[in-house]
UniProtKB/TrEMBL annotation:
Alphabetized UniProt keyword annotations: Coiled coil, Repeat, WD repeat
Coiled coil: 421-455
Listed GO biological process terms: actin filament organization; cell migration
WD repeat residues: 77-119, 127-169
Record domain DUF1899: where: 4-68
Similarity comment: Belongs to the WD repeat coronin family.
GO molecular function, one term: actin filament binding
Lineage of producing organism: Eukaryota, Metazoa, Chordata, Craniata, Vertebrata
Keyword Cytoplasm tagged: no
SUPFAM superfamilies: WD40 repeat-like
Name of the protein in its database record: Coronin
Gene3D superfamilies with a match to the protein in the record: YVTN repeat-like/Quinoprotein amine dehydrogenase (2.130.10.10)
Length: 456
């Protein structure tokens, strides 16, 4: 008889904990839309959340350190004429964010260093091409300035953002609403799940289907799908009896799932977040008050349940921090930004270790912010592998964020203005320094006011 009862794993004791109340973002009116997107996107500089807005759509962008109560008059990004449905930070530039809206447009915004001082109404680029609302956005993982959008017109568009134009339009594949769309690690494949109960693997540049699976889950409710390690696919969906399920597939033989597990009988769609460095997948249900996590391995049953983080309040959305934004000295392997009705609460996932030294086994080299190929080259057929960085000394941006350039024939040529720009750079620096001083003074005054209020 085998003695080994419990499977050994260094992630058996992943420990989830919400931060203290003063480290949350309070008094934010999160959007009441019933759309199944994350409603939140984070990177090492900012957290962005879709909020309620009168007369159009808006989202708020806060520097990570701006915790506590957020004033109602805090400036937001408000250029859409309809509610915003999805937002996504660019992985290659922490100041660039894309938003998709019910007004059928996609907009690209540049957030200034330190956050917004006035409301942002004019996008850097506006991308028009969808005939119905745009509910899914995803940046290419390795190609600079390539963005995928999926709309309720059952169309997927791949944009060359630098040129402000649609480079590939996939409009004959999906016969119904697209539930999810994502890239694989190097961006050579797109995976979609659709209301017509099909899971499809697409060649992004040709717009053709390379493999498809009919009815990955029997139920009629939305299916979500993500790539996990070794090109395998993890799906979340519902059984015919409306029980929530998680399944793992090998696209080389799509017939039967490698594993299919039933979880519970809740109605919320499970949003999967996969961490390729640790092989852990986190399942966050919309309307749930818990986050389940599983380890995906090569041995049966392939998807191993680890544990669950539970809290009292349900989540309206969830943001997931890229690995380079985590605190490695605290053995933090994931951080979520959970949206409540009126606040955003960071939840930290750690692997408790006694040593203060860098834990190499928890932090293999991870995907960095440098793209490996430019948009024009990628659309011409060139692929690029992710450029990995070490987190040993914590992530420090050694190179400046990839500059965001827009090449548009309609825009004034940049050469004619470059002479003026050099002449004005001294003035600009002086103004920036002045703004910084004013912001610091304002923060100091705000702190003093709150201290006085708390004494009263």
């Amino acid at each position: 008889m085998s003695r080994k009862v419990v499977r050994s794993s260094k992630f058996r004791h992943v420990f989830g904990q919400a931060v203290k109340a003063d480290q949350c973002y309070d008094d934010i009116r999160i959007s009441q839309m019933t759309w199944d997107s994350n409603f939140c996107s984070v990177n090492p500089k900012f957290v962005a959340m879709i909020v309620e807005a009168s007369g159009g759509g808006a989202f708020i962008v806060l520097p990570l350190n701006k915790t506590g109560r957020i004033d109602l008059s805090y400036p937001n990004v408000c250029g859409h004429t309809g509610p915003v449905l999805d937002i996504e930070w660019c992985p290659h530039n922490d100041n660039i964010i894309a938003s998709g809206s019910e007004d059928c447009s996609v907009m690209i915004w540049e957030i200034p260093e330190g956050g917004l001082i006035t409301p942002l109404k004019e996008p850097v680029v506006k991308l028009d091409g969808h005939s119905k609302r745009v509910g899914i956005l995803s940046w290419h993982p390795t190609a600079h300035n390539v963005l995928m959008s999926a709309g309720c017109d059952n169309v997927i568009i791949l944009w060359n953002v630098a040129r402000g134009e649609a480079a590939v339009r996939i409009d004959t594949v999906h016969t119904d609403l697209i539930y999810s769309a994502c890239w694989n690690t190097d961006g050579t494949q797109i995976l979609t799940s659709c209301k017509d109960k099909k899971l499809r693997l697409l060649d992004p540049r040709k717009g053709t289907v390379t493999a498809e699976k009919d009815k990955p889950h029997e139920g009629s409710r939305p299916v979500r799908a993500v790539f996990v390690s070794d090109g395998k696919i993890l799906t979340t969906g519902f059984s015919r009896m409306s029980e929530r399920q998680v399944a793992l597939w090998d696209p080389k033989s799509f017939g039967e799932p490698l594993t299919l597990q039933e979880l519970d009988t809740s109605s919320g769609v499970l949003l999967p977040f996969f961490d390729p460095d640790t092989g852990i997948v986190y399942l966050c249900g919309k309307g749930d008050s818990s986050i389940r996590y599983f380890e995906v391995t090569d041995e049966a049953p392939y998807v191993h349940y680890l544990s669950m983080y539970s809290s009292k309040e349900s989540q309206k959305g969830m943001g997931y921090m890229p690995k380079r934004g985590l605190e490695v000295n605290k053995c933090e392997i994931a951080r979520f930004y959970k949206l409540h009705e009126r606040k955003c609460e960071p939840i930290v996932m750690t692997v408790p270790r006694k040593s203060d030294l860098f834990q190499e086994d928890l932090y293999p080299d991870t995907i960095g912010p440098e793209p490996s190929v430019e948009a024009d080259d990628w659309f011409a057929g060139k692929d690029g592998q992710p450029i990995l960085i070490s987190l040993k000394d914590g992530f420090v941006a050694t190179t400046k964020n990839k500059e965001f350039k827009v090449i548009k024939s309609l825009m004034a040529t940049t050469t004619s203005s470059s002479g003026h720009r050099q002449a004005d750079s001294g003035e600009v620096q002086a103004l920036q320094a002045e703004v910084k001083e004013l912001r610091e003074a304002l923060e100091e005054l705000t702190k003093r006011v709150s201290e006085l209020e708390s004494k009263n």
